[in-house]
Specification:
281 residues; 2 domains; alpha+beta
């Protein structure tokens, strides 16, 4: 069985299970949490997963997926995945080594892609929410759309920098604005509190990651966002010299941060190499 066929099989079983557990009762809130549980890496589970303005600990929803594995996937998963069920359990499919978490996530995304009716019900307030956003929040949405990564991949992962920091120079140019990082930071929080983005920050060693996620049932809206948003990009014919210089300083600052991260990672590598040379006791 190919990986694509395997995931489609899992997705159909996920749909059947969700029909019983969530959809028959129109419990879309539970379905949203089940998505969040699979979306973010394990490092986020007991840290700051932010969405709709709240932080979430999703251990209880991980239990739901464990129950699903035991009861619905017993015939197709390896015995060790059933005897010791875990979202981190690995299996080889069509030459690829994948975790159960990754397979369930892909199956759930395929479910949302297939069930447009469910997406429509879960996003019924999208246009009203969009209309009430501040000008700066709408500018961020349009900039993310133009950047393309978050629309294509459903997520944007930044290293040692935040969304408002990395996009501030671009927004200043596109919209001929003097907006600062604090204002954009509040606009990002606005997108998270409205449910249009989910967010998590987590560390791996000295590196801090910031993840921004589009809920899968909103991706069709994000992919056509210019149709729904009333923000116009002015024609840029002249960039004020002071603004240009500030943008250059921002770029130089980001380059310095990147150099610092590279140096830290190189230092860590040297320490590991030295540790491997120590005699065994």
């Amino acid at each position: 069985m190919s990986l694509e066929e395997f995931i489609k099989n899992i997705s159909l079983r996920v749909e059947k299970y969700l029909e019983k557990e969530c959809l028959s009762r129109e419990d879309y809130s539970k379905l949203e949490k089940l998505w969040l549980c699979l979306e973010f890496p394990e490092q986020c589970f007991y840290k700051d997963i932010e969405w709709y303005g709240y932080s979430y600990e999703l251990g209880v929803y991980e239990g739901f997926w464990i129950h699903f594995i035991i009861n619905e996937l017993r015939d197709i998963l390896p015995e060790e995945c059933i005897l010791r069920p875990s979202l981190a359990c690995e299996l080889s499919i069509d030459g690829a080594q994948l975790r159960v978490r990754d397979i369930l996530y892909e199956a759930l995304v395929e479910f949302f892609h297939r069930r447009r009716d469910v997406c429509e019900k879960m996003s019924k307030d999208f246009l009203n929410i969009l209309d009430k956003l501040s000008k700066e929040a709408k500018q961020i949405i349009l900039t993310l759309y133009l950047d393309g990564d978050i629309v294509k991949n459903g997520k944007l992962v930044l290293c040692n920098t935040t969304l408002e920091s990395i996009f501030m120079p671009t927004i200043r140019i596109l919209f001929r604005s003097n907006v600062d990082e604090k204002i954009l930071g509040n606009a990002v929080k606005e997108l998270i509190s409205s449910g249009l983005l989910a967010h998590c920050a987590w560390r791996s060693g000295v590196v801090k990651f910031y993840e921004y996620i589009i809920p899968p049932y909103l991706r069709h809206y994000w992919s056509e966002i210019p149709k729904y948003i009333d923000i116009v990009i002015p024609k840029v014919r002249h960039i004020d010299l002071s603004l240009r210089n500030e943008i250059i300083r921002e770029i130089q600052n980001l380059e310095r941060q990147l150099d610092e991260v590279k140096k830290r990672l190189e230092d860590i590598k040297k320490l590991i190499d030295k540790a491997l040379l120590l005699p065994e006791k």
